[in-house]
Amino acid sequence: MDWLSQFPGTFYKTKSKEILDFSFFASDFLVYSVTVARSAGQVPVYYAHRNGSGYEGRGVDMFVTKEGYVNESLDPLYPFGHGLSYTQFSYSELELSSTKVSPEQVLTVSCKVANSGSRAGDEVVQLYVADLLASVARPVKDLVGFRRIHLQPGEEKRVKFQISISQLSFLDRKMEWIVEPGIMSLMIGSSSKDVQLEDTFEIIGNRTVVGNNREFFAKVTVAE
After folding, report:
1. Among candidates 192, 142, 188, which has minimal Cα distance to 168?
2. Which is deepest, 69, 140, 172, 213, by most CB within 10 Å?
3. Distances (CA, A) of 80 to 12, 126, 195
């Protein structure tokens, strides 16, 4: 552990013992950052690529097979939202307030997250939504909300997301922000790649122009 003595940092006196005996919890995530490419040949690489492109939806050609490139995997080195911890987490009991919503409504989505390991730790619970069929090409998934939570060993919390359907609007060919009726896929997990829970819901009604009256991120609450 020579690096610890050479570069002790601000909290050396208070944290060195905890780090050495693993009683100090540590975790970090790429939610605020980017997808990390495996090599320069993968660039550009990002999680919200359009359907039919990118590392999740790209077709097969002379340089790419279903398994990946000729000389390496299609998957990035670290997907968007990737994180590590000294413990493990489990997801369960996904609940939706409704399976059918109109463009003016709010959909509530919740799940339970438990620390199934032996150490305290942080988890970033991430909610993604995908439009399965639209009038223009849409991303394979969009991050619509997240919350970082701290859990003791064996502790469980319910994370609740409130999604305004206007948040799911997109620019159409006339450059208007609209919400279209259709089936939406919903995914919750610890990264854009590590999806733990999935379900679908339907936006009903007519095509709706929302203009500037739209939300940008889901409201999140945490309950014991």
Report:
1. 142
2. 140
3. 31, 11, 12
Q: Could you tell me how many helices (H) and strands (E) the chain has, helices first?
A: 3, 16
**152, amino acid identity:** Q
Q: Which residues 6+ apart lie within 8 Å of 101 measured at CB?
A: 107, 165, 201, 202, 203, 204
Is residue 86 packed enough to be buried (19+ CB in 10 Å), middle (13-18) or exposed (0-12)?
middle
The 8-class DSSP code of residue 35 comes to P
**Sign for the pseudo-dihedral over CA of 212, 109, 158, 34:** negative
Q: Is the pLDDT of residue 63 over 80?
A: no
What are 160's strand-pairing partners? 110, 221
C-alpha distances (whole Å) from 139 to each of 51, 89, 186, 224 are 6, 27, 13, 34
pLDDT confidence of residue 17: 53
pLDDT grade for 34, boundaries at 50, 70 and 90: confident
**12: three-class secondary structure by DSSP:** helix
